[in-house]
């Protein structure tokens, strides 16, 4: 038997991902861009509704308060997305709400000074102001690290090998938001998962006027079909005798968003009153800001890959972190009840649609701002049951995780050093947060449980994040274990040319600031 040729068994590493229909600075037609932008908006609704739906009732808020928080969050998300795509990294990333802030926010909710307030509405408002104050203070971390270029200096210690677990676990680490939520309503969740995969993968070659309509708009089409199916099940009385939890997850009329939403209201800063400041609350929130920084660093790198761009240089990455800090400051000023980070699910949608256009994401930001002001219309779309969103996450989080694994092509995986760092950081990145979650669910407090509440919040927040744990382990091992003789194994010969803005001519095309602003803020 003839030996296979070298090109038949070897796939050369590629700086940019091939197969993307529209890269970062290429644009589909305006009609297609608007529909794709609306699709990103629909996907962003999942997190924007889930976080307030969980936190607002704990604070004593009503359905009206929940709707208002959702609207404000979407409004600020739209502004932050525009800032990030125009002046930050300039990558096609939606800046959404972050689960990294849940631990310190829940700690503030359970603060004895606030929890003892008997009037529910007053407790909600006082708690909201405390969260706002902590977020405003903590946002300074990212603003300083970003605009001072300190994060650019730190990022010079990153390598393809060290970034693999960080990017991979920005997807894999969110497994508890996938099928466990689908299982809350299998009648709609599983059909949504099957339909989304069928349209986006198996029927992707179906064209209408030379447009792969099922692949490009798979999320929008499958969501519409399953949402209509869920409404049919609701109106037919299928869930009347089911448990309250099942009804909440399956019915299309249990969120009370539409009935509680105003027809039109424009969000504005300090809507809940002037923020209150507490040093302990601020320290706990700073941990969440650091976590969102690390998670977003991985997501930015994944987005660059799925937008068929080169990896963002340290200067660009740091610039994006600075603007992300501005975004968290806006979260605090407006009262969104959570901070900002890159929406991982929307990064995954870039790959699913094979459209990495910056314009599409900017259009989605316009939809966020527009529908956040038109309350009833926005609430209508936001009433999609959570298991439908979770079914999308099963695909999109996995896609982002695989982008992280694809960076292994630039490393030497025949090296025991590379195998050790990759395996240990991936395993601990999944195992340690799972331990923290299990401990918390049983003991009703995190493993860090001392009299210093701020210290508890700081540690528990850090180790609840898979990406953050993987980042700590991978970067430490990669920079201490046989460091001097491992440059090639780490993938540094490929990575080096992207460590400076002028190291690759494509950087100027992808990351230069608009309106000739680069003349005033020259790249380093």
From TrEMBL:
Residue spans crossing the bilayer: 38-57, 93-109, 130-151, 182-201, 213-233, 360-382, 388-407, 458-477
Domain of life: Eukaryota
Example of a GO MF term: transmembrane transporter activity
Coiled coil: none
Chief place of localization: membrane
Membrane topology, as annotated: Multi-pass membrane protein
Alphabetical UniProt keywords: Membrane, Transmembrane, Transmembrane helix
GO cellular component, one term: membrane
Location(s) in or outside the cell: Membrane
Family annotation (InterPro entries): NCS2 (IPR006043)
Entry similarity comment: Belongs to the nucleobase:cation symporter-2 (NCS2) (TC 2.A.40) family.
NCBIfam families membership: NCS2_1
PANTHER family the UniProt entry points to: XANTHINE-URACIL / VITAMIN C PERMEASE FAMILY MEMBER (PTHR11119)
Name of the protein in question: Nucleobase-ascorbate transporter-like protein
Organism: Medicago truncatula (Barrel medic)
Gene field: 25485987
